[in-house]
Amino acid sequence: METSEAQYAEFEEKIKRTVYLDNLSPQVNESIVTQALDQFGNVKSVRFIPNYLESKNIPQCALIEMENQTQVNAVISDITQKPFMIGGMPRPVRARKAKMEMFDDRPVKPGRTIQCRWVEPNDPDFEVAKKLKELAKIHAVEAEYVLKKQLEDEEKLEKQHEESLKAAHKKYKMVDSVIADGTIRQLSRGYHLNVGDD
């Protein structure tokens, strides 16, 4: 299908308005992402990039179209400088500008034609195709290892957060019990401090 130059230019502008988010929680949906990024401007669309090779419990990637490029830069700058909060919990999300290759519905560049052919063993390009196939297998193994390591790191981070929350909760309970049983009043008298009724 032929793509007009105007359609292609429009798509290029869309790319400039789009931010790519990586390492989103598998539980995150469109409304959560929209709500999290609304502080930077108007979110026009959220599109999750499907992963056909791995299980469903892995981190997700998404393409988020904002209203303009300034908003995209603000999202990237903010996420790069501080943790991205989703549902009150920090998440090690990565953000960068979108690239054309990230869109599965990208139009064909005007004037460009794509040809496919079967490469026979006696073809001069057969060895090149064979090397590319082997390289793709190596990349798949490496990606699987990196993903496994990333999931392990995230599980450790989740445990750390859980332990921090439990410790904070324990401290608050202890403070509440000191206030409730009158120990704080006794301490304030001993140190000659004025403690109000609240």
Describe the protein in words:
With 198 residues, this protein is of the alpha+beta class. The protein has two domains: 5-102, RRM (RNA recognition motif) domain (Alpha-Beta Plaits, 2-Layer Sandwich), CATH 3.30.70.330; 116-198. It has helices at 5-16, 30-37, 69-81, 126-180, 183-190; strands at residues 18-24, 43-49, 60-66, 84-86, 89-91, 94-97. The chain has a four-stranded antiparallel beta sheet with strand order 2-3-1-6. The protein is elongated.
Q: Indicate the CATH topology of the largest domain.
A: Alpha-Beta Plaits
Helix content: 40-55%
Query: What is the β-strand count?
Result: 6
Main sheet properties: 4 strands, antiparallel
Following the backbone from N to C, one meets helices and strands in this order, namely HEHEEHEEEHH
Give the tags.
198 residues, alpha+beta, two-stranded antiparallel ribbon, 4-stranded antiparallel beta sheet, Alpha-Beta Plaits, 16% strand, 6 strands
